[in-house]
Amino acid sequence: MQKTLLNMTMGLGMMVLAAQQVHARNCAPRDEVIKRLTESYGETRQGLGIARQGAVMELYASEQSGSWTITVTLPDGITCLVASGQAYEMTAEALPPNV
């Protein structure tokens, strides 16, 4: 379990660094990105977390269509699309105890 969490943390860190480097076609002011996710895909925020260097990672998803998007918002207010896909499912299961 700890190895999985470490890999996920490292992956998220790399996504944040990539978003900071790209800052191009997949990035726009946060309000524009959120408006498009909501109006075009019916996605709403399902989760969030603080990443490196003051960035905020958010998961947007639509329970109706199953589409999902991960965004990273940088301290300057620019939001970048990091990943997206289909078949989103909300889970409410308990996490296993730390081993």
What descriptors fit this protein?
99 residues, alpha+beta, five-stranded antiparallel β-sheet
Question: Could you provide a short overview of the structure?
Answer:
By secondary structure, the chain is α+β, with helices and mostly antiparallel strands.
Provide a descriptive summary of the structure in words.
It is a single chain. The protein is α+β, with helices and mostly antiparallel strands and 99 residues long. It has one domain. Helix content is 33%, strand content 30%. It contains 2 helices and 5 strands, in the order αβαββββ. It has a 5-stranded antiparallel beta sheet with strand order 1-5-4-3-2, sandwiched between helices. The longest helix has 21 residues. The N terminus is likely disordered.
